[in-house]
Amino acid sequence: MNTHTTIQHLNYFETAIWPIGQTPLLNLKATAAAAGLTDSIQLLAKAEWFNPSGSVKDRAAKRIIQVAEAEGKLWPGMTLLDSSSGNMALAYATLGRLHGYKVKLVVPANATPARLALLRNYGLDLTLTDPAEGSDGAMATARQMAAKNPNYFYANQYDNPANWEAYYHTFAPEMWQQTGGRITHFVAGVGSGGTFTGAARWLKERNADIVCATVQPKTEHEGIKGLKFMATAVSPKVYDSSLADKHLAVTAAEAQETRQLLADCEGLSVGPSGAANVTAALRLAQTVEEGTIVTLFPDDSRYYS
Predict the structure, then answer these.
(1) What does R_g of the chain's alpha carbons equal in angstroms?
(2) Distance separating alpha carbons of residues 271 and 247, to the nearest angstrom
(3) What is the pLDDT at residue 291?
(4) How far apart are CA 194 and CA 125, in angstroms?
(5) CA-CA distance, 189 to 168, in Å (whole number)?
(6) CB neighbours (10 Å) of residue 152?
(7) Cα dihedral across residues 20, 26, 32, 35: positive or negative
(8) Given this structure, which CATH class describes domain 3-50+167-297?
(9) CA 258 to CA 190: how far, in whole Å?
(10) Per-block average pLDDT, block size 10, for the chain (305 residues)?
(11) Which fold has domain 57-154?
């Protein structure tokens, strides 16, 4: 089977719903000014809630499904299985069901009530796992289920290279085009690691001088939704830490302060990981004299209640 040709002709996602990607790049000028940055530093953020299910994860879900179809591993009527602590679950729910697949998700029981209610509204098959074990526990349970049932397609977002490839082929080129190639710094939180890895790899290939920084919780107990404390978490295979020039640590309190700052300065209501990204980007900006710093809002605040 010609994988490239097959993927090229899978246009369902572009016609049945509005396109995934090409999200706005927001200029956080008021936030930068409030933080004391000069006009020589531009702070920008991709608003990923413009994707169909409301998050950046639509990019990865789309690529994972397309590649699996092209490789003959997934076809209508099958059950797509994976674990997710939030946004990827919604992406699978939207794109998987829309494209004719049953979806079975393993989700930590401490996912927000709003998110769980929405997933149940999709009529998905949900398995809730011990909240104390977080996303790592959900991942282990999903792997056990996949091993016992060959009729499942285990999407395995944490180890599937189609995850980081999605951001390599879409997210990073968009940033480059939207900044006219002037991006000097890229800042992204690490959950599965796909967004950072794919985008950083593409950017480094274009300009090795671009500084790429990860964002992680300061401790494993911070509880910033969407981010992993990599020192103790199971490291996803899609995450390539060698691409990081800097690792920036953020506390939950700092992220919450930034959420309020973004609301006050920009009229934006963003999710916890997006606020953490901006917190780290502002800290990085204090160390440079000029530049174009790009980060992202993986989602907005709608599912965090």
Answers:
(1) 19
(2) 20
(3) 98
(4) 25
(5) 16
(6) 18
(7) negative
(8) alpha beta
(9) 18
(10) 35 56 97 97 98 95 96 91 89 87 92 85 91 90 94 95 98 98 98 96 98 96 88 90 97 97 98 97 97 98 83
(11) Rossmann fold (3.40.50)
Return the axis-axis angle of helices 272-285 and 252-266, rounded to nearest 10°.
Answer: 90
Residue with tokens 């990607």: 21
Q: Give residue for tokens 């179809």.
A: 69
pLDDT of residue 267: 98
Two tokens, residue 271: 């999710």
Contact (Cβ atoms closer than 8 angstroms) between residue 292 and residue 42: yes
Q: What is the pLDDT of residue 305?
A: 67
Outline which parts of the chain fall under CATH 3.40.50.1100: 3-50+167-297, 57-154
Under 8 Å between Cβ of 250 and 279: yes
Q: How far apart are CA 14 and CA 19, in angstroms?
A: 5
Between the CA of residue 266 and those of 34, 38, 77, 103, 158, what are the distances in Å?
11, 17, 45, 37, 33
Structure tokens at 16: 């049945």
User: What are the beta bridge partners of residue 296?
Assistant: 46
This model's pTM is above 0.70: yes
Q: How far apart are CA 135 and CA 278, in angstroms?
A: 23
Which residues lie across from 250 on neighbouring strands? 217
Cα distances (Å, whole numbers) of residue 94 to 88, 267, 303:
10, 28, 15
Ranges of beta strands (E only) in 86-173 are: 102-108, 125-129, 152-154
DSSP 8-state secondary structure symbol assigned to residue 207: -
